[in-house]
User: Which sequence fits this backbone?
């Protein structure tokens, strides 16, 4: 199926495009009334994630409603721990919780390397349905959590500001840490390859908790595993988004990936210099979308100007916040389309 | 009262010392069984903060038990909002909560500029009692939250990963943001001056949520107010610790403060180059204290070596985590004392 809009893929490969592609992290989600209606129908977040028909429906909503240049499959990074044998629950207002966690070597016996066809077929089915319904309108992005970020959840058991239980293992039992992160990496590679086989046109790896590591630990516990993923995935472009890892930008830029995501703390000019030869993605502060239309347009144009001729994919520097007005999101998207076309 | 151990003050002024001083953020706290006993006696965290006798007692505990080179007054950065008319409660396992918050200009009428002698006399009394009981053994550090960080709590109402309610105001009502941050700054200057008059030998300003701002916002909403504080406090050295503000290190280094705190993500060699002519403080990852004694000694020595001849105050890169073994803390402190003496 030839894509009618392949801006995302061409930008990811560093090719010249008449304008940059634009999409938003968490675009399929609570910002849209249409999403909230499907979410109510599903009864729970996890029901929605595991129902391929409904997941496909909310994946496509932002393409129809917002006019983004890519869809990203509606799912959660925590499906990997679940597929490895560590189920999670989603607690209203509090986020994910793992009733059981990994804290010592003997806990590893509970885990298996995920087999995506056995354990994650609901995601693969959602991708197939989405691809069929998108009918080539825009590319579909697949994704997974980065191994270190998934390790954080599997050991800490929930979100945390410090993830001190997770980091404790790095210092007290580095062997366990490497074993677990290695198992997660194997599971993630198999999972991403299955997503690609099912139809994903690009895959993004989210290292959401990269920022809690020291530069040295990031080199030990994160980068080698990201490298393994990048080296294994040769079928489609790979985007690495390591939130808060300002200190690792050069090293991430040396990974064999196509795109590097920037959070809103990462200065674009500085990042262009640190990461030459790669497409960048981001990085408008999601809070800008709380401002006036005029200010959204101004800040978006500033971002476009800062990228200049460097290949990039317009996005926020973090997932869009749930209470953002969809009209403000549309203002961001339209500004990218109009202003960038003018600049080019 | 002449100090018997003035290493902290000499290091803060950039003077040569035979070894660097060492203390830990959150050293007066849950890591010590002796603290937990007093905390139980007090009945609640807020009772302990507001009881000068008990606050003085837990302030001095780490000097006696751990052998640190400075005491830091036991208190909380949220006493300022309370003194301004916005009381908080401390919810077990969840952290601070403000029943009322500031979201619009008319909410400001609830607030007043804090008068430390009227509203915060319990802290000033705790400082006086502590100074008297310390009897010149080590200096006493006073502290306050940075205006932007306090603004975050007063608008968001609780801790948050994104502080999106707080940041929303920066974009939607910058005037309200500047007004409120200005009032907090006035209150903070009066408060720090009162702490100094009561006996504080150095004051530290904690910008705990600096890392959620873009570099540009940090320049607009944080730095000018930090500058006002630094310019107003001429009596004693001032330490600025802006956690996560890696991007603002150069700018913070240009403030008229004496010491700049580093978190564990901030590379020491890089920070020395970015912040010449100032004493640095930090920055061992608090999670290192979960490791073996051997590893604690090794990581601590690496930190000392990285500072080299640059004036510094040994500390962690964040507050010590509550479940840290005090013997591990002692290992860190002793390593600084022994190894640094050897190096000098």
Assistant:
């Amino acid at each position: 199926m030839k894509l009618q809009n392949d801006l995302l893929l061409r930008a990811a490969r560093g090719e010249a495009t008449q304008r940059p592609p634009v999409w938003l992290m968490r675009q399929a989600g609570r910002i849209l009334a249409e999403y909230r209606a499907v979410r109510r129908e599903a009864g729970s977040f996890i029901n929605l994630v595991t129902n391929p028909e409904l997941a496909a429906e909310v994946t496509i909503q932002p393409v129809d409603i917002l006019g983004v240049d890519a869809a990203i499959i509606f799912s959660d990074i925590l499906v990997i721990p679940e597929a490895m044998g560590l189920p999670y629950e989603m607690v209203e207002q509090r986020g994910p919780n793992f009733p059981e966690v990994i804290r010592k070597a003997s806990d590893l016996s509970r885990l298996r390397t995920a087999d995506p066809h056995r354990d994650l077929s609901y995601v693969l089915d959602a991708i197939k349905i989405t691809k069929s319904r998108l009918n080539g309108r825009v590319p579909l992005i697949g994704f997974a959590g980065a191994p270190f970020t998934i390790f954080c959840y599997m050991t800490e058991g929930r979100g945390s500001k410090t993830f001190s239980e997770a980091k404790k293992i790095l210092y007290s039992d580095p062997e366990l840490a490497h074993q677990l992160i290695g198992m997660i990496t194997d599971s993630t590679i198999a999972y991403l390859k299955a997503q690609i086989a099912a139809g994903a046109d690009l895959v993004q790896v989210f290292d959401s908790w990269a920022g809690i590591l020291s530069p040295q630990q990031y080199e030990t516990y994160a980068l080698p595993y990201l490298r393994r993923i990048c080296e294994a995935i040769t079928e489609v472009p790979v985007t690495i988004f390591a939130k808060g890892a300002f200190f690792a930008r050069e090293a991430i830029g040396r990974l064999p990936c196509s795109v590097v995501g920037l959070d809103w703390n990462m200065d674009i000019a500085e990042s262009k210099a640190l990461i030459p030869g790669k497409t960048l993605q981001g990085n408008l502060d999601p809070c800008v979308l709380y401002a006036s239309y005029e200010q959204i347009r101004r800040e978006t144009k500033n971002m476009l100007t800062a990228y200049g001729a460097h290949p990039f994919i317009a996005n926020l520097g973090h997932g869009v916040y749930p209470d953002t007005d969809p009209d403000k999101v549309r203002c961001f998207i339209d500004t990218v389309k109009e202003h960038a076309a003018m600049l080019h």
